[in-house]
Amino acid sequence: MKHHRRYRWFLLSLALIILLSPLLYWSTGIGQAAAGLSAETSRLPDGTLLSSPKAEALRNLSLPMRLQRMLIYPLLLLAFQFSGGAVALRSWLEHIKTHRNSGELKGTPFLSSHKFPQVPFLKIPWLDLLIIFFFVLLFNLALSLLYLPFNFYRSFTVGHQFGLSTLTALGWFGDWAKSLLINLSLDGLTWTGLYGLMRWLPRRWPLPAGVVLVLFTGVMVLLEPVLITPLFYQVRPLEDAQLRARILALADRAHMQVDSVEVIDASSKTTQVNAYFTGFGGAQRIVLYDTLLRDYTPDQIEVVLAHEMGHWYYQHVLLSIVGIGAAGWLGLFALQWLLHRTWRWLGLRGPADIAGLPFVLAVFTLVSYLALPFETGISRFAERQADHFALAASQKPQAMVELFEQFAVQNLSLVDPPAWEKLIFYTHPSLAERIRMAEGWEASQ
Ligand SMILES: [Zn+2]
Questions:
Q1: Beta strand pairing call for 285-289 and 261-264
Q2: Centre of ligand 1 from the C-alpha of residue 389, in Å
Q3: Three-state SS for 261?
Q4: What's the rounded Cα separation, in Å, for the pair 298 and 249?
Q5: Main-chain dihedrals φ then ψ at residue 44, nearest 5 degrees
Q6: What are the residues whose beta carbons fall under 8 Å from the beta carbon of 97, sequence distance 6 or more?
Q7: 96 or 205: whose pLDDT is higher?
Q8: Where are the alpha helices (DSSP H) in 152-228?
Q9: DSSP state, residue 155
C-alpha cells in the first residue's frame, strides 16, 4: 500500500513527541517552582474552601500530561497499524520461529505451523499461540520503553518536585520493572487466550470469551491482595487495639461482619494518604495506608473505615465485576462484528490475525474515552453512597469535614475542580461536595 510511507513518518513523529515531551513540561518551569509554593488551603470570607497554590500548580502540570497521553496513545497505535508495522512484526516473528525450529523451512514461514505439534483438542498449532504471545510481549515492551521517560518524569520527577514521592530512583525503577513483568505476563496470557479462542471457534468465540473474562476478573480481584500487593508493599493486619474496638462497634451497628483490616507501608513510596476496599464473598478486606494511621486522629480514621465499610455493605466490588463483565461481553460481540468488516481493509490474513491488535487496542481506547463519563458517574454515585453510610455509621460529620480538609492539603487535591474535569475524570465527588454533604448531614440531624 502506498500510504504506508506517510504513516511511517506519522508514527516516527508521534514516537518523538512522546520521548521528548518531558522536556516540554520541564520547560514550563511549573515543577521547578513547586517547592516554593504553599500546600495550605485558604478560605473566602463566606467560608468557601480554596485549593492550595501547590495543588493548583500540580493540576496545571498533570492535566496537560493526561490529555496528551489520551490523544497521542491511540494515534500511535493506529499509525503502527497503518504503517504496516504490525504486519511486519508478526511476519518477522514467524520467520524467526521457522528459522530456529526447522532450518529447511527457512523462507516459507507459512508452512511451518503444519509441521509443528498442535494443541490437543483445540487443533491450533502451538507455534501459532507462541507467535501471538511474543507479538503481545514485544509490542507491549516497546510501548513501555517508549513511555518510560514520560512516566518517570510524571511520577518520579514531578512526585519529588511536589514533595509527594518518597521513593529513590532505584525504588521507582524496581516498581516499574515489577509492574512491567506482571503486565507483560497478564497481557500475553489474556490476548493469547482470546486470539486462540477466535481461531478455535471463529463464529462463537465471544460467548466463551465473555465467561472467561468475568471469571478472570473475579479471580484477579481475589488474587491481587494476596499475590500482587505484597510485591509492592509490606502488608500487615491492623494491630491497634483501640481502632479494632471502634471497627467492631461500627460493624455491630451496621449488622456486618468486618474482620479483615490491613495496613500497607505506603509511606515507603508516597506522602499521600488513602484507603480502599477490595474483594467479595469470604475474601473482603479494607486496606489502609500507614500514612493515614500516622497523620490522622482516631475519629478521622474511624470515618475512613466507615466509608470503606460502606463499599463493603453495598457490595461495590462485586457489582463492578458484574458491570465490567456485562460491558466486556457486549464489547467482545462488537469486536467480532468490527474485525469481520475490517480485516481485509487492514491487510490482515483474517479476523483472528494478531497483527490487528494495535487497531483493536486503539478502538478499545477510543470507546473507553466515550464511556468515561458513565464510568466515573457510576463511581461517584457509589462513593456518595459510601460517604452517606460513613456519616450514618460513625455519626461524626465534623471529623469527616476535617478529614477532607486535610486530604486537600496532604494529597494536593483540587477542592473544587471545573465541572467538565469532574464529569470525565473524577471517580470521587470533589472535596467541596463531600464537605458540603457532611455539613448538610450535620445540619439535618
Ligand atoms: Zn470510596
A1: parallel
A2: 11
A3: strand
A4: 14
A5: -75, 165
A6: 109, 112, 127, 130, 131
A7: 205
A8: 158-161, 169-200, 206-223
A9: I
The stretches of 36-162 forming alpha helices (DSSP H) are: 53-82, 85-101, 112-115, 126-146, 148-151, 158-161
Kindly state the cell numbers that stand for 357. 491488535
The three-state secondary structure class of 263 is strand
Q: What's the one-letter identity of residue 188?
A: G
SS3 352: coil
Tracing cell 500546600 back to the chain, one arrives at: 39
β-sheet bridge partners, residue 286 = 261, 277
3-state SS, residue 248: helix
pLDDT tens digits, 222-241: 999 999 999 999 999 999 98
Choose among 442, 320, 430: nearest CA to 55: 430
Which tens digits make up the pLDDT trace of 148-166?
Answer: 999 999 999 999 999 999 9
Q: What separation in Å is there between the alpha carbon of 434 and the centre of ligand 1?
A: 11
CA–centroid distance, 424 to ligand 1, in Å, is: 18
Ion ligand 1: residue ranges with CB closer than 5 A:
383, 386
pLDDT of residue 100: 55
* Pairing label, strands 124-125, 49-50: unpaired
Q: Supply 327's cell numbers.
A: 460491558
| Ligand 1 centroid to residue 162 C-alpha, Å | 25
Q: What is the pLDDT of residue 282?
A: 84
Q: From CA 308, how far away is CA 284, in angstroms rounded?
A: 11
Share of the chain above pLDDT 70, in %: 94
Tell how far the Cα of 84 is from the centroid of ligand 1, in angstroms.
Answer: 44
Compute the distance from residue 339 Cα to the ligand 1 centre, in Å: 38
